[in-house]
Design brief:
Elements lengths: L7 E4 L9 H16 L3 E6 L11 H11 L9 E2 L4 H14 L2 E4 L3 H10 L27 E4 L1 H6 L1 H5 L9 E3 L2 E6 L3 E5 L1 H4 L4 E3 L7 H11 L4 E5 L6 H10 L6 E5 L24 H11 L10 H12 L1 H6 L3
Parallel strand pairs: 1-2, 1-10, 2-3, 10-11
Antiparallel strand pairs: 4-5, 5-9, 6-7, 7-8
Helix pairs in contact: 1-10, 1-11, 3-8, 8-9
The structure holds glutamic acid (GLU).
Glutamic acid binds next to loops.
Length: about 325
C-alpha cells in the first residue's frame, strides 16, 4: 500500500481587515479538521491584491487567531513574497498552451457581451466572451487568461494526467466534485467563468492562480473555507489539472449572515471579531458549525471532540 499522505490544512485570510465572525468560522473549522486528522495546520496571508489590503491587518489577524488558541504549526507565509512561484506557473501554463495574452479593456469586454446579447444579471458573473482567444489582433497585452474552454475541449488529454483521489468525477463540459459538507456539486465552468484571468492588467497575479500554486507548494491536502468560495473550486481544480498538481479534498463551511441576510463580509462593514473574551468568540463560531457550546479552559478540546464525532464518517473516508 502506498504511504498515506500526511494531512495538511490551512487558513488563508486576505488581510483586507481584521478577522470577523465569519472568517473565524473558517479558521476554527480548518484548525479542528487538521487536529482531528493529527495533521498540520498552516496560515497563509493572501495579500496578493495590495490595493484591497489594510496595512497591519495581517498582524491583527494572527493575534486574533492566537488569542483564540489557533496557532499555526509553521510560520505563516505571505503571498506578496511569492510572486516568483506564480510567474513560474504562468510560464508553464503558457508553454503548455493553456494560457494566452489578452488585450481587452473592461469596455471591450462589455461591448462583446452586448454583441452577444449577454445582459448583466444581479449576482451572476458573465463569462469572458473569448475576444482574444485566437490572438491579440493588434491590441497590446493587458492580462493573461486561462484557456479554460480549450482545456475542457481537450479533456481526454487532461484526463491522462496523474491526479489524486477518487473523490471527484470529471464529466465535461460540467465538472462534478464532492464537497465534504455540501455533497456532490456540479458546475459548467465555461458558463460561469469562461477563460478567467491569471495575471491582471496591473501585473498582479489573480487569486485563482496564487491559491492553486500555494496549496500545491505547501502540500495542502484538505481545504476548508467559507461557502462563498465554493464556486471557485471548479476553476481551481482545472488549474490543478492543467499544472499536473494533486486535487485537495474540499469542505465549505456555513456562512455567517447579517440580519438582512447578506453574508457577513468586510465589504459589507462586518465588525472585527471581539477576541477579548475568546470563549464567546469561539462559541459563536462553534454554533455556526453546529457544535454545542464549549466549556471555558477546555474550549478547543471540547470543540475537537464534537468535530471528530460529527465528521467520523468523512474522517474515516478521508483518513489520508
Ligand atoms: N483569501 C481568501 C479569503 O480570505 C480565501 C481563499 C481560500 O481559502 O481559498 O476570502
Amino acid at each position: 500500500m502506498p504511504p498515506a499522505t500526511h494531512y495538511c490544512g490551512r487558513f488563508a485570510p486576505s488581510p483586507t481587515g481584521p478577522l470577523h465572525a465569519g472568517s473565524l468560522v473558517a479558521a476554527l473549522a480548518s484548525w479542528l479538521d487538521a487536529r482531528a486528522h493529527h495533521g498540520t495546520w498552516l496560515v497563509r496571508i493572501e495579500d496578493i491584491d495590495p490595493p484591497r489590503c489594510q496595512p497591519g491587518a495581517d498582524h491583527i489577524i494572527l493575534q486574533q487567531l492566537a488569542q483564540c488558541g489557533l496557532i499555526p504549526d509553521a510560520p505563516p507565509v505571505w503571498q506578496s513574497q511569492r510572486h516568483a512561484h506564480y510567474a513560474q506557473a504562468l510560464q508553464r501554463l503558457e508553454q503548455l498552451g493553456w494560457a494566452y495574452p489578452c488585450g481587452c479593456t473592461r469596455k471591450d469586454i462589455e461591448a462583446a457581451w452586448q454583441n452577444l446579447g449577454m445582459v448583466q444579471q444581479r449576482h451572476v458573473e458573465r463569462p469572458y466572451p473569448g475576444v482574444c482567444r485566437h490572438g491579440l489582433n493588434g491590441k497590446s497585452l493587458r492580462s493573461w487568461r486561462f484557456a479554460l474552454e480549450k482545456f475542457i475541449e481537450n479533456w481526454p488529454l487532461a484526463l491522462d494526467r496523474p491526479r489524486q483521489g477518487a473523490h471527484y468525477l470529471l464529466n465535461p463540459p460540467s465538472l462534478i466534485w464532492h464537497d465534504r459538507r455540501l455533497g456532490v456539486q456540479q458546475q459548467n465552468p465555461a458558463q460561469v467563468a469562461g477563460d478567467f484571468v491569471l495575471q491582471r492588467a496591473d501585473g498582479l497575479y489573480a487569486y485563482q492562480l496564487a491559491v492553486v500554486v500555494d496549496d500545491a507548494l505547501q502540500g495542502i491536502t484538505h481545504i476548508i473555507r467559507g461557502e462563498d468560495l465554493a464556486d471557485n473550486t471548479p476553476r481551481q481544480m482545472l488549474l490543478q489539472q492543467a499544472l499536473v498538481l494533486p486535487h485537495p479534498h474540499y469542505l465549505h463551511t456555513p456562512l455567517v449572515r447579517m440580519p438582512d441576510g447578506e453574508k457577513l463580509s468586510k465589504q459589507h462593514g462586518a465588525p472585527a471579531v471581539d477576541v477579548s473574551t475568546p470563549l464567546r468568540a469561539l462559541n459563536k463560531a462553534a454554533q455556526a458549525l453546529n457544535l454545542l457550546p464549549v466549556s471555558p479552559d477546555t474550549a478547543l478540546t471540547d470543540a475537537l471532540a464534537q468535530w471528530v464525532n460529527m465528521w467520523r464518517a468523512s474522517y474515516n473516508t478521508h483518513r489520508d
